[in-house]
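Quick one: examine this chain and its backbone structure tokens and tell me how the chain folds. Here goes:
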Amino acid sequence: LIAAPILTTLFQSEAFSAADVQASAAALMVYAVGLPAYVISKTLTPGFFARKDTKTPVRIAVVSLVINTVLNIVLIQYFAHVGLAIATAIAAWVNAIILYIVLKKRGHITLEKQTIARLIKCIVSTAVMGTAVYYTSAALSHFFQQESMLRIAALGGLIICGVVSYIVAIAVMRTFSLSDIKGFIRSKA
């Protein structure tokens, strides 16, 4: 949702025009759709490695690579550079889904009701955050046409808006208990 403000703040100059920002923003938005799939894959592959199965994740990665390559060739013709991003995002999701299906079929993974409920609450919280950031971005859009310090301040405001709205939504829906949060902080310390 804030691809254009991020790129404007970081890169827009005489050499990187507003048109370049818009073209790059489209690709960045699509890449962002694939990002959760990479995180999911990163959490699923240890399920194979722990069982000394290194071949299955590699085979699945090869399938994803082939899908990515074929989609790159097809989609670049219709969507230019954004087609490459679409292909990459689709391939990432295919990889994550196949990893999950194989682990599930083998009985190595089960999603508990509490995990599914938390996932739904996190998705709702993300929607709340997205809505807040979308409207805040529209309200601050004129700052992104100003000098770089104003752009940085506006981008900082967008990020703070996103973080605060997400935390508030998570807290209101009681997605995590205080003991869950304390345990998470202790595990990272």
In short: The helical segments are 3-11, 18-49, 55-79, 81-105, 113-140, 148-172, 178-188.
